């Protein structure tokens, strides 16, 4: 199938219009497989971020979006989801060209999930119920969830469209307006998303996209603006720290989804093939550029040799190549800068921090699926988030040791465990410090469940009601329930306290 031609210029989308930067600045968008520039992108400045914030502010303060009913907003978000499905090839091509992920993953997983994010949050908001608090004093309280205002969404390059929609969908469904700043390496799908939102009928200014970098650029400007009401960020832990500090100036609530160094524990009683299968996906999908990656693999001693043998054979069988080719499983890393960072970790292994069983640097900006054993547990390869296709494998002797090893990290995003022992599964899941624990699986999500990290992996949770609480300003309404005239006094209903005449019960 021939894919549509890529546009030569990727503009901002502000107040319903596709625009250049105010100063006309542009930067190159480089394809990490061909290592050639594919397009020019509007290089936003803080002034462009301000323009986008002002447009979102007007759309919130004076526009119809926050004043619409949930059903009407939901209809437009469903229409946007349908348009995403209809333009799946173009969107798949956009992210694959920008960051080198296999096109199969975009077509079969990420584009469908992006559309689903919009459908899910539209429906969740519409069907959401609130809490009511009958009070002993003869009053009655309830919670109203009203939109927070202007949301700044700052997203990363590893799952561009999927994470953009993960932020934008709940923000919009709850009636906010948005300024989205996609990562500088992956601008194309965000502009397409904003274009489709207009086509779906979202009013101008409701979803704005501004391109450019973080420090001293649109990213920072969004986090320092007093006109922004919420900041949702996914990215590196160090960037999260900077954003949190900037947001504190105006006391703007932030939701931070940060890095990880996921532990994957395989017990001797696990279904070996099943565990190998998921463990391969957990570290080599998206070339390991996944905050949730299972990058520390702990295998119980009795099956250690058998597991490693099968795991290495599977890692070596992964098809590396042009991410645009169907069938490719591992593409290049997303950028030269990132390739250099991941390569520098492999260089430390030459100094004796561990033994590489398979993998290493490939052609271009490719790092081959890399398995490291006998690793020094004080080394950077073991302790730091590499964000590449590099896994360290260690044996363990007992459940207690496995949990202690898994928790010995400053991160706490997620962990996995493989066992057939039900009690152990629950015990270990409860003992792991992690925002998500997967038992006998990986990456499966119910969008109602909390998502986020402990420790340096983040602040706050999103998903279902957790997203509602973040993207709204929950308001308590407390009413007096006036006493009925004595002649009309009724018996109290079970579970409520009402006034009978002048007597409070
Ligand atoms: P990575 O290190 O994986 O590239 P980053 O955390 O640097 O991830 O980037 C994630 C997103 O955060 C990108 O959209 C980037 O432009 C943005 N960003 C980076 N630095 C800042 C900053 N100081 N303020 C706001 N946004 C930033």
**Oligomeric organization of the protein chains:** single chain
What structural class is derived from the secondary structure elements? Answer: alpha/beta
Which range does the strand content fall in? 15-25%
According to CATH, the fold-level topology of the largest domain is Aldehyde Dehydrogenase, Chain A, domain 1
Under CATH, the homologous superfamily of the largest domain reads Aldehyde Dehydrogenase, Chain A, domain 1
**Which ions and ligands are bound to the chains?**
adenosine-5'-diphosphate
The total domain count is 2
Query: How many alpha or pi helices?
Result: 15
Number of strands: 25
CATH class of the largest domain: Alpha Beta
Shape: globular
Task: Give the helix proportion (percent range).
Answer: 25-40%
How far apart the termini lie comes to 74 Å
CATH architecture of the largest domain: 3-Layer(aba) Sandwich
Question: What does the main sheet amount to?
Answer: 7 strands, mixed
Q: Spans of 5+ residues with little confidence (pLDDT < 50)?
A: 497-501
């Amino acid at each position: 199938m021939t894919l549509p031609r890529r546009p030569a210029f990727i503009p901002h989308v502000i107040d319903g219009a596709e625009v250049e930067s105010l100063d006309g600045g542009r930067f190159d968008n480089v394809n990490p497989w061909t290592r050639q520039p594919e397009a020019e992108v509007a290089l936003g400045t803080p002034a462009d971020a301000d323009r986008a914030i002002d447009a979102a502010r007007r759309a919130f303060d004076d526009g119809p979006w926050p004043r619409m009913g949930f059903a009407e907003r939901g209809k437009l978000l469903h229409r946007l989801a349908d348009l995403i499905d209809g333009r799946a090839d173009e969107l798949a091509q956009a992210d694959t060209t920008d960051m080198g992920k296999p096109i199969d993953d975009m077509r079969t997983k990420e584009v469908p999930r992006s559309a689903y994010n919009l459908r899910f949050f539209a429906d969740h908001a519409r069907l959401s119920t609130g809490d009511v608090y009958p009070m002993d004093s003869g009053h009655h309280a309830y919670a109203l969830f009203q939109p927070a205002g202007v949301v700044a969404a700052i997203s990363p390059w590893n799952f561009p469209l999927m994470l953009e929609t993960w932020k934008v969908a709940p923000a919009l469904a709850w009636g906010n307006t948005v300024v989205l700043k996609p990562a500088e390496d992956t601008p194309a799908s965000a502009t397409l998303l904003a274009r489709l939102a207009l086509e779906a009928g979202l009013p101008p200014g409701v979803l704005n996209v501004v391109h450019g970098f973080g420090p001293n650029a649109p990213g920072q400007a969004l986090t320092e603006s007093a006109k922004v009401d919420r900041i949702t960020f996914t990215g590196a832990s160090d960037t999260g720290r900077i954003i949190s500090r900037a947001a504190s100036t105006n006391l703007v609530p932030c939701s931070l989804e940060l890095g990880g160094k996921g532990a994957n524990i395989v017990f001797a009683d696990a279904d070996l093939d099943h565990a190998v299968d998921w463990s391969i996906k957990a570290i080599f999908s998206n070339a390991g550029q996944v905050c949730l990656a299972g990058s520390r693999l702990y295998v119980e001693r009795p099956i250690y040799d058998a597991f490693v043998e099968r795991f290495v054979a599977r890692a070596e069988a992964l098809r590396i190549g042009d991410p645009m080719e169907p069938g490719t499983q591992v593409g290049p890393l997303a950028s030269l800068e990132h390739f250099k960072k991941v390569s520098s970790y492999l260089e430390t292994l030459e100094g004796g921090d561990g033994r590489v069983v398979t993998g290493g640097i490939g052609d271009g900006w490719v790092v081959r699926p890399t398995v490291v054993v006998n690793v020094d547990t004080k080394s950077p390869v073991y302790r730091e988030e590499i964000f590449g296709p590099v896994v360290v494998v260690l044996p363990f002797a007992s459940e207690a040791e496995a949990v202690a090893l898994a928790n010995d990290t400053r991160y706490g995003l997620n962990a996995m465990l493989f066992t057939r022992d039900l009690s152990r599964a629950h015990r270990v899941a409860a003992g792991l410090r992690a925002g998500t624990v997967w038992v006998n699986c990986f990456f499966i999500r119910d969008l109602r469940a909390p998502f986020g990290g402990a420790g340096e992996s983040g602040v706050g949770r999103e998903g279902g009601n957790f997203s509602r609480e973040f993207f709204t300003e929950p308001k308590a309404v407390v009413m007096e329930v006036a006493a009925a005239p004595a002649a009309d006094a009724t018996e109290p209903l079970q579970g409520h306290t009402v006034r009978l005449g002048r007597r409070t019960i």
